[in-house]
């Protein structure tokens, strides 16, 4: 009875998700109140039949976002890799927990192999690593390691009575730095933001000055967090200069390469990571650039003992001292989690299927596409680049006719700020393309094109830009406000 049910489930997934994603809309958007009405979220005392469950399955798919769709370019993950999916399915079917060799023999050795391999790709001195439930948690774990390095007693006695700890990071950093500074008791206010230049990179002189200032005020600089591939602009901080500053002041250097770190596979673009080996810890998210299914995030550390020293608790009901095998194979005690989903297999399986060269081709194809996208933005008068592209991120404004060449008019920024959200709303209601937008520092809202799906083509780029132009032309009908032509916004 369950066999037929599960076969039917797989068939539905094949038909409606895996092999359908490009024929359907990215999303069949419903406002929350309407979705509450057209989807039965209720739970009851008695279960429902398998036939009904299959209908719920179909409905769930119907109203969900198809992140494998080529026009899902909303986030730093996308695409649907067949080997990754197979890996994910196997992981879920086996439902292992990778804390002891006993419970997860294959996955334990696989983790050790893959972390060893990625460490070797970073540099000869790289020691150890761990899988984390996402880049945010990995960043937080690294900050905690930096504090432990400074003050190992903190593990037992806590931070009470210690001086003010401070972290330094880019003003364009990922928000997880603030979240985890707050979570582990450093405090958001003690995250010191370093200015970025016109393309989004940390200004090293500002870093040096701010460290000096904090030291003069009696604070303890715990870590500098540099980013290789910032979330919005895809900027790469100047690691070599930052590493020199960290050396001068003896500060832990953590590199958030959650987005950019996958470049390690590409001969052609690896140079963007130059200096990465000088860090003390690095986060790389294979679930972003390499399109491994979520979640797959790795924290690497140079010091091979620090994960055990900082995290271990030696619980005897799990890591018994008198095990029937060499208990050094049990990985669980170097982790913060106890039960832990196996994230390694899908990554290993994809790597096995494609080889390192397959990942390199994937990256190089995506970079070529991003270059083409940027070229199109430069060519079309209705678009304007926010800043020159450094990576996969192409940040741009759509300029309605009445704003083209009118940077000097009063209200220009305020008017432009409204454009991307209005066009996005239309795209989502249409269900055709899902693309992210955001403001940045003082810049008004702009679109960010970013794809991790290497089957997206130049034709798709044309489609996306034509669509934005068409929607823009349709919604910004000519009117008059303050002497300049303005839109009439209708949805
Ligand atoms: C630079 C950077 N670091 C960290 C993260 C957080 O990663 P996750 O979403 O896996 O928590 C992101 C997410 O986009 C990111 O862009």
From TrEMBL:
Record-level GO cellular component terms: cytoplasm
Obligatory cofactor(s): pyridoxal 5'-phosphate
Sites of N6-(pyridoxal phosphate)lysine modification: 288
Pfam families: Pyridoxal_deC
Keywords assigned by UniProt, alphabetized: Decarboxylase, Lyase, Pyridoxal phosphate
GO biological process: one example: carboxylic acid metabolic process
Stored Gene3D superfamilies: 3.90.1150.170, Type I PLP-dependent aspartate aminotransferase-like (Major domain)
Molecular function (Gene Ontology), one example: pyridoxal phosphate binding
Family: Belongs to the group II decarboxylase family.
PANTHER family, per the entry: BLACK, ISOFORM A, GLUTAMATE DECARBOXYLASE-RELATED
Name of this chain's protein: Glutamate decarboxylase-like Protein
Protein's gene: AUGUSTUS-3.0.2_10581
């Amino acid at each position: 009875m369950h066999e037929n049910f599960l076969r039917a489930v797989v068939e539905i997934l094949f038909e409606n998700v895996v092999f359908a994603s490009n024929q359907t809309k990215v999303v069949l958007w419903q406002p929350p109140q309407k979705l509450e009405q057209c989807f039965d979220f209720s739970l009851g005392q008695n279960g429902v039949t398998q036939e009904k469950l299959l209908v719920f399955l179909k409905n769930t798919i119907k109203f969900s976002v198809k992140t494998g769709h080529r026009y899902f370019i909303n986030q730093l993950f996308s695409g649907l890799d067949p080997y990754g999916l197979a890996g994910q399915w196997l992981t879920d079917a086996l439902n292992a927990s990778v804390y002891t060799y006993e419970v997860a023999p294959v996955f334990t050795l696989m983790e050790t192999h893959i972390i060893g391999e990625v460490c070797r790709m970073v540099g000869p001195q790289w020691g150890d690593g761990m899988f984390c439930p996402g880049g945010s948690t990995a960043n937080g774990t690294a900050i905690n390691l930096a504090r432990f390095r400074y003050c190992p007693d903190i593990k037992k006695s806590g931070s009470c009575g210690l001086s003010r700890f401070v972290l330094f990071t880019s003003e364009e950093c990922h928000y997880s730095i603030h979240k985890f500074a707050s979570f582990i008791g450093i405090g958001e206010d003690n995250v010191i933001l370093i200015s970025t230049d016109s393309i989004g990179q940390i200004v090293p002189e500002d870093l040096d000055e701010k460290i000096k200032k904090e030291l003069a005020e009696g604070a303890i600089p715990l870590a500098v967090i540099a980013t290789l591939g910032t979330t919005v602009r895809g900027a790469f901080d100047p690691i070599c200069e930052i590493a020199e500053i960290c050396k001068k002041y003896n500060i832990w250097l953590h590199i958030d390469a959650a987005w950019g770190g996958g470049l390690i596979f590409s001969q052609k673009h690896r140079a963007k990571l130059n200096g990465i080996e000088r860090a003390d810890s690095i986060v790389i998210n294979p679930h972003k650039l390499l399109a491994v299914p979520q979640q797959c995030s790795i924290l690497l550390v140079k010091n091979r003992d620090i994960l055990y020293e900082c995290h271990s608790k030696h619980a005897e009901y799990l890591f018994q001292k008198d095990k029937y095998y060499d208990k050094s194979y049990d990985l669980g005690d170097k982790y913060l989690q106890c039960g832990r989903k196996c994230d390694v297999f899908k990554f290993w399986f994809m790597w096995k299927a494609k080889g390192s060269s397959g990942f390199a081709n994937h990256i190089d194809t995506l970079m070529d596409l991003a270059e083409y996208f940027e070229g199109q933005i430069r060519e079309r008068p209705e678009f304007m680049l926010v800043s020159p592209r450094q990576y996969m991120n192409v940040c741009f404004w759509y300029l309605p006719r009445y704003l083209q060449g009118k940077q000097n008019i009063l209200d220009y920024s305020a008017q432009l700020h409204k454009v991307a959200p209005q066009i996005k709303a239309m795209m989502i209601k249409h269900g055709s393309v899902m693309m992210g937008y955001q403001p940045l520092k003082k810049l008004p809202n702009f679109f960010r094109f970013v794809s991790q799906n290497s089957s997206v083509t130049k034709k798709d780029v044309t489609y996306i830009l034509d669509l934005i132009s068409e929607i823009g032309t349709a919604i910004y009908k000519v009117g008059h406000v303050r002497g300049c032509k303005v839109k009439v916004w209708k949805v």
